[in-house]
Amino acid sequence: MALHTDGRHPATPGRCPEGRDADLPGAACRRKPGGDARPRSRQDASGLYSIGAFEPIKAVIYDFADSRAGKHAQEFLDTWRGTLVCDDYAGYKALIADGVTEAGCMAHARRKFFDLHASNQSQIAEQALAYIQGLYQVEREVAERSPDERRRIRQAQAKPILDEFHDWLPRH
């Protein structure tokens, strides 16, 4: 998931309960109360938080938790309110209900159409992939532009693609 915050982010790099930095992907640093360090189990999970791609500060934060329960994201994000780019995992819904703005992840949506097309040569999935490819092309074009230019180009080029895709989806 990515946090897009217009340059403001309340979080500091994730830390283990013992205060050690949790800065290595997949690092196991949680301890059972009073126990030794333990390897991550199948029930453990990590939240991966990243600020927006166009923010001046580049950061990724790993928040290790005992489970994938939504309460962990709620505790980590606390009072932060911004736009959360994420999959449709139910654990995020309480955040959305509490004022966080949800933005669906196009890569997750694309993967479903890609899998359908790869397994069945679906013409419907192929058309959906063409819409998404058009959006990706716009993003490649705006990658090095200023925020105002990105907004202007997205409104002129990506919005019509999204509108057409939105109208097309319920008919297919």
Description:
This protein is of the alpha+beta class and 172 residues long. The protein has 2 domains: 2-104, no CATH class; 106-171, no CATH class. Helices cover 41% and strands 13% of the residues. The protein contains 5 helices and 5 strands, in the order βββαβαβααα. The chain has helices at residues 70-77, 93-97, 106-120, 123-142, 147-168, and strands at 2-4, 45-50, 60-65, 83-86, 101-104. It has a 3-stranded mixed sheet with strand order 1-4-5. Strands 2-3 form a two-stranded antiparallel sheet. β4, α2 (93-97) and β5 (101-104) form a beta-alpha-beta unit. The radius of gyration is 19 Å and the shape is globular.
The low-pLDDT segments are 1-40
Overall geometric form: globular
Helix run count: 5
Which band does the percent of strand residues land in? 5-15%
Radius of gyration: 19 Å
Q: Topology as H/E string?
A: EEEHEHEHHH
Class per helix and strand makeup = alpha+beta
Offer a few descriptive terms.
172 residues, alpha+beta, 3-stranded mixed β-sheet, two-stranded antiparallel ribbon, 5 helices, 41% helix, globular, disordered N terminus
SSE layout and pairings?
Layout: E1 2-4, E2 45-50, E3 60-65, H1 70-77, E4 83-86, H2 93-97, E5 101-104, H3 106-120, H4 123-142, H5 147-168
Parallel strand pairs: 4-5
Antiparallel strand pairs: 1-4, 2-3
Helix pairs in contact: 3-4, 4-5
